[in-house]
């Protein structure tokens, strides 16, 4: 995954997917790659880290959310990689729990 792959508007995959109201947007600037959207118990932006462990970097004490590319236009947001108790986090209309959520990229 790279900045070009993750940049854009994203909506949770499913029957209710509506690109006119995306769950979040990812933009790249000099400040970094930033996710903007309604994140439960967090401000509305988070850094997207695209290194050997791609993730959404949430502020302490929240755990980071791993991300994975899924096909040409999919992005899986997974629950934290920990065995500790996890209070599910919502991003837009989707709640990140169990095996996570796959988002699809909206056409630009």
Quick one: how many beta strands? 10
- Order of the strands making up the biggest sheet: 1-2-3-4-5-6-7-10
Label the structural class: mainly beta
Helix content: under 10%
Major sheet size, sense and barrel closure: 8 strands, antiparallel, barrel
Number of H- or I-type helical stretches:
1
Radius of gyration: 13 Å
Q: Residue ranges: pLDDT <50 for 5 or more in a row?
A: none
Overview features:
108 residues, eight-stranded antiparallel beta barrel, two-stranded antiparallel ribbon, 1 helix, globular
How are the SSEs ordered, and which strands pair?
Layout: H1 3-6, E1 8-12, E2 24-29, E3 32-37, E4 45-49, E5 55-57, E6 65-70, E7 74-77, E8 89-91, E9 94-96, E10 101-105
Antiparallel strand pairs: 1-2, 1-10, 2-3, 3-4, 4-5, 5-6, 6-7, 7-10, 8-9
